């Protein structure tokens, strides 16, 4: 199991093309990945190419759009950027580098959720590979499933500089030791920059502007600079930023009452229950909101919605 304080790497597999790695690059990849995860010791490769590399589904942008609209609340910027980025990337037959997205925002704003939606849209069975399988997979082989999706959780807990070990994979190289990474997707998740995003969103609100009018350009460069200068972001002075290897910094905004309510309703529906507005109101009442005076944004986003709903 992932332990707190450690960067967690989850890997969602799949692809058609599978090329064996040269011994040299295998150890390079192991070095990098095990450094990141801190996990070792799995002898057996669980997932053979035939089983796990064939589930790739043609990318369907409308399906992803629909799913984001139905399930992700209060994140007009993230929805838009992610949809555009993936559509462009998947429609490009010859990408020059892998797609790298860095998702930022407080806990409970949907970063993890979105990355799972993305992965599932590309590899429907990908999420079934659990952590164990992943470790085995990495430890046993680094297969070159060309369009694998890598999700690095809790980047902010990673030691500065560690992530740069994977820089060669993210760069504009045709191949690294015989393997092309250009069709892969890397997603970093981080709470770092959450303060910055919150401040910008709050300023916007205080100025009486519509949240939905907040634009990516209002946030993206501040976010990349902020993360680069933040010792605890996992991307502090990172070559990935320096070299512009991160394609998008995606802000996840703090969630308001109305968004939390949407999460509660969606969760009720997902459980096959009728939406009961009394319960919705009670669940939201129990949650805490900030800043102290205005109490606009949920402290934990939608994170505790499930457990609170269990209780009711
Ligand atoms: C793409 O997704 C949409 C919405 O779910 C669906 O109606 C459509 O049939 C899908 N297209 C393909 C080619 O699967
Ligand atoms: C993959 O891992 C298995 C089991 O650990 C091993 O037998 C096999 O040689 C590995 N293949 C490559 C290409 O490293």
Mind explaining what this structure looks like?
This protein has 312 residues and is α/β, with parallel strands linked by helices. It has helices at residues 23-37, 49-52, 61-71, 76-91, 111-122, 131-140, 167-170, 194-206, 216-228, 239-242, 257-270, 277-285, 305-311; strands at residues 8-12, 99-104, 149-153, 185-190, 248-251, 289-290, 297-298. The chain folds into three domains: 3-49, no CATH class; 61-251, Rossmann fold (3-Layer(aba) Sandwich); 257-311, no CATH class. The protein has 13 helices and seven strands. The strands form two sheets. The protein has a five-stranded mixed β-sheet with strand order 1-3-4-2-5, with helices on both faces. A two-stranded antiparallel sheet has the order 6-7. α3 (61-71) packs antiparallel against α4 (76-91) and α11 (257-270) packs across α12. The structure holds 2-acetamido-2-deoxy-beta-D-glucopyranose (NAG) (2 copies). One 2-acetamido-2-deoxy-beta-D-glucopyranose binds at residues 60, 62-63, 66.
């Amino acid at each position: 199991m992932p332990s707190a304080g450690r960067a967690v790497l989850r890997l969602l597999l799949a692809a058609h093309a599978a090329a064996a790695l040269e011994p040299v690059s295998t150890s390079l990849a192991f070095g990098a990945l095990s450094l990141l995860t801190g996990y070792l010791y799995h002898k057996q490769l669980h997932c053979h190419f035939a089983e796990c590399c064939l589930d790739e589904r043609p990318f369907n942008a409308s399906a992803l759009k629909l799913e984001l609209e139905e399930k992700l609340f209060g994140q007009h910027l993230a929805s838009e950027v992610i949809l555009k980025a993936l559509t462009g990337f998947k429609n490009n037959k010859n990408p020059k580098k892998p797609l790298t997205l860095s998702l930022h925002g407080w806990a409970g704003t949907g970063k993890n959720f979105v990355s799972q939606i993305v992965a599932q849209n590309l590899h429907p069975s990908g999420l079934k590979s659990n952590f164990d399988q992943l470790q085995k997979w990495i430890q046993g082989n680094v297969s070159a499933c060309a369009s694998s999706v890598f999700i690095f959780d809790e980047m902010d807990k990673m030691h500065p500089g560690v992530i740069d070990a994977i820089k060669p994979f993210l760069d504009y190289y045709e191949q690294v030791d015989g393997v092309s990474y250009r069709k892969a997707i890397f997603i970093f998740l981080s709470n770092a920059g959450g303060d910055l995003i919150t401040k910008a969103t709050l300023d916007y609100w205080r100025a009486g502007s519509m949240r939905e009018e907040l634009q990516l350009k209002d946030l993206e460069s501040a976010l990349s600079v902020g993360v680069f200068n933040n010792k605890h972001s996992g991307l502090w002075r990172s070559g990935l930023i320096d070299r512009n290897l991160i394609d998008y910094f995606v802000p996840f905004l703090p969630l308001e009452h109305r968004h939390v309510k949407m999460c509660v309703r969606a969760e009720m529906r997902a459980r096959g229950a009728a939406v009961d507005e009394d319960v919705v109101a009670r669940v939201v009442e129990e949650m805490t909101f900030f800043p102290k005076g205005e109490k606009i944004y949920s402290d934990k986003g939608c994170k505790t919605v499930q457990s609170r709903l269990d209780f009711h």
